[in-house]
Amino acid sequence: MIIGMGSDLCNIERIASSLARYGERFENRVFTETEIAKARRRPFTIAGTYAKRFAAKEAFSKAVGTGFKRGVFMKDIGVVNAPSGAPTLALTGGAALRLEEMIPKGHEARIHLTLTDDHPWAQAFVIIEAIPL
């Protein structure tokens, strides 16, 4: 059963401006080490790479119904790739706890994530599903 759904649209130029103005301070406040490493391997598309991940974090916060409140922080939500190469989320801290609270007993969470960009926009959709064990 679907227990949460969220989407977000992020302006790549806004992320580029934040990177230019705040640099590593912005990166370290918002993104995980894995996300930073991946973005830095893509110097010509770094803002787009970050914008998609920023949108994914926002979409997840909407899917769990908290936004960035109740202990859910951007840095607790990391975009990673499954072995198949598909994007998914790795959760820690308050984000992981909030997801755990939402899942009914006898179920496990499955997060579906899709990312796209077409300059100047990046977009993410998150669907959270509860799967019976």
UniProtKB/TrEMBL annotation:
<keyword id="KW-0808">Transferase</keyword>
<dbReference type="InterPro" id="IPR008278">
    <property type="entry name" value="4-PPantetheinyl_Trfase_dom"/>
</dbReference>
<comment type="function">
    <text>Transfers the 4'-phosphopantetheine moiety from coenzyme A to a Ser of acyl-carrier-protein.</text>
</comment>
<protein>
    <recommendedName>
        <fullName>Holo-[acyl-carrier-protein] synthase</fullName>
        <ecNumber>2.7.8.7</ecNumber>
    </recommendedName>
</protein>
<dbReference type="Pfam" id="PF01648">
    <property type="entry name" value="ACPS"/>
</dbReference>
<dbReference type="InterPro" id="IPR002582">
    <property type="entry name" value="ACPS"/>
</dbReference>
<keyword id="KW-0275">Fatty acid biosynthesis</keyword>
<comment type="similarity">
    <text>Belongs to the P-Pant transferase superfamily. AcpS family.</text>
</comment>
<feature type="domain" description="4'-phosphopantetheinyl transferase">
    <location>
        <begin position="5"/>
        <end position="101"/>
    </location>
</feature>
<keyword id="KW-0963">Cytoplasm</keyword>
<dbReference type="InterPro" id="IPR037143">
    <property type="entry name" value="4-PPantetheinyl_Trfase_dom_sf"/>
</dbReference>
<dbReference type="GO" id="GO:0005737">
    <property type="term" value="C:cytoplasm"/>
</dbReference>
<dbReference type="InterPro" id="IPR004568">
    <property type="entry name" value="Ppantetheine-prot_Trfase_dom"/>
</dbReference>
<keyword id="KW-0276">Fatty acid metabolism</keyword>
<keyword id="KW-0479">Metal-binding</keyword>
<feature type="binding site">
    <location>
        <position position="58"/>
    </location>
    <ligand>
        <name>Mg(2+)</name>
    </ligand>
</feature>
<keyword id="KW-0444">Lipid biosynthesis</keyword>
<dbReference type="GO" id="GO:0000287">
    <property type="term" value="F:magnesium ion binding"/>
</dbReference>
<dbReference type="GO" id="GO:0006633">
    <property type="term" value="P:fatty acid biosynthetic process"/>
</dbReference>
<feature type="binding site">
    <location>
        <position position="8"/>
    </location>
    <ligand>
        <name>Mg(2+)</name>
    </ligand>
</feature>
<keyword id="KW-0443">Lipid metabolism</keyword>
<dbReference type="GO" id="GO:0008897">
    <property type="term" value="F:holo-[acyl-carrier-protein] synthase activity"/>
</dbReference>
<keyword id="KW-0460">Magnesium</keyword>
